[in-house]
Fold this protein.
Amino acid sequence: MAGTDTGAHAWGLKYDALVGGRAGGAGLMEAATAAIMGAAQCSDLLATTAVNHQNADQQSAMNNAGAPAFPPTAKPMFLVPAIPSAEGGHSDVPGWWHTIQAYVQGEMWPNGHQDKLRAAADAWHGAARELRAAADIANDGVIESVRAQKSPEFPVAATNCALERDSLKAVADGFDAAGTACSDYAQAIDDAHSKILHEMAALGATVAVTEAVAAVLIPFTAAISEGVSKVVDVARLVATGARIANIIREFRVAAEASSLPTASALGNAVRAVGELSPLLSARAQLFLAEGAIPGLLGTEGLDLLSRPYIRVGTRQAVEAAARKDARREVLHQRYR
């Protein structure tokens, strides 16, 4: 969508670094994925904590014959989206470009897709709004509800929820920066096109006047009139080409400036997500009256990120042990 000209190449390199989503990338897609997985991790850990409290209450009762509760299935993995490079697009140029191309000092017509860039900007801003809405949900009710619970683990849980909220907002800011970069670049292309067309219109008017002068000279000498026409035309082409070359160079500067805010936005997002590392590497643990259940967790995820789930064999072993313990308790009560 950025185009294939030199300005597109410079802008596309910075945009691609911001977005990520390719092998070895460390951009917004990776940060957003970690933030989303952090939200899922918060949910899974809170669910497991609630089940631990439920089991503690249940198993502390006399004559308890019920099987222990289990947390719901872990949230599914959210994989890093694959984002294509921004550089590329059509190589079309206006039909008249060949008349001035030799005089623009090697510069290229800016051929980015303004419509695609603006559509991408809308998508980025829309995604940012969704992330902020999710952060607001956590901020408006979840964090205070967790903090109000009376148990040693809940202050840490509330802190993790607050860090997750902040990471969502930081990634949303990065999304907005990407959207602004796209719309600013599209506007830079529009501005360059408008200025180039203005120069070509002025050139066309000059050529028309030159042809009129040459026509006036024809009755006197055809050779002189033809010479005047060619000299004036070439001089005007060189001057116009130089001005167009300068316009395109200014466009490249504007294109680079449109991508400057993205570096700080990406840095803020990466730092916020980095603070989630303890949360992302946490391991949920299910407890019964006898203590922790071994072998509860599997490991799958992104780098250190683990997704807790209960193996079928573990679940069956725990339930069978609970039933045996319940039968022993009944016999003990009956024959003591």
